[in-house]
Amino acid sequence: MERESEYRAADRGRMSGSCCKAPSTWTQYKTLLAKDLKAEFRTKDMIVSMGIYAFLVIVVFGVALSFARPGSEFLEVSGGLLWALVVFTSLLGLNRSFSKETENGCLEGLLLAPLDRGVIFLAKATSNLVFLALVEVIAVPLYWVFFSSFAAPADTGWLLVVPLVVGSIGIAGIGTMLSTITAATRGKDVMLALLFVPVIFPLLYACVSATTCALVGGDVFADGFFTSLALGAGYDVIMILASWVLYDFVVN
């Protein structure tokens, strides 16, 4: 009887220890990411609104350039127009990324749970990147369908995918940090734009330069593409690491 009671006590100890054991960082990340993806794909509010907004921006660009003369000069400004489309569309999505958490009190629940704050940042940034990438897959080809009559890109035009990836990663990471800061502020839409555009300006400048080099091709591509891409990637690494380290302080 004494041995049986000892075995039962040991089993209870093991069970209590296993119940109190916190899930791994990877498990926390997958759970939070799955929560965001399932919530969005169930309603599709953010993706649909970002897609419609991107289409409207393209229509406005089309009206503004309807009297422009076709020519290779259009390629020199098309990179900037494309990134204006990406930035405006991403602002709409970032403004809504924390709306459900703040409205339903989910953010407080996440903070009370035994979770690493950096994991919350990484999961939210990844979900924002996925939503932005889905919209870009539709919006970028649509952009070139509208403006293909102005000028044909160079043979290196397909390389614009690389600065799009680099820029989207930075926008998702930096935007997640800033949307967390402005989530509980009055007039958060304006506040996010005021903080977001100046902070991402170096990344935006580098990505516009790399995109323009890819579209124009020739000597311009050889001179500036990889340099601009390296600057953008370096800025991504620095800012995302800083956001990850400071996220605990910001979210608390």
From TrEMBL:
Which residue ranges does UniProt annotate as crossing the membrane?
A: 47-68, 74-94, 129-152, 158-178, 190-218, 224-247
User: Which Pfam families does its entry note?
Assistant: CcmB
Q: Which GO terms describe its cellular component?
A: plasma membrane
Q: Where is the signal peptide?
A: none
- Which locations, inside or outside the cell, does it occupy? Membrane
Record-linked InterPro entries: Cyt_c_biogenesis_CcmB
One GO term under biological process is:
cytochrome complex assembly
Tell me if Coiled coil is a UniProt keyword of this record: no
Q: How does it sit in the membrane?
A: Multi-pass membrane protein
- List UniProt keywords, sorted A-Z: Cytochrome c-type biogenesis, Membrane, Transmembrane, Transmembrane helix, Transport
Gene Ontology terms for molecular function: heme transmembrane transporter activity
Q: Can you tell me which family this protein belongs to?
A: Belongs to the CcmB/CycW/HelB family.
Stored PANTHER family: CYTOCHROME C BIOGENESIS B-RELATED, HEME EXPORTER PROTEIN B
> What is this protein called in UniProt?
Heme ABC transporter permease
Annotated organism of origin = Adlercreutzia hattorii
Taxonomic classification: Bacteria, Bacillati, Actinomycetota, Coriobacteriia, Eggerthellales
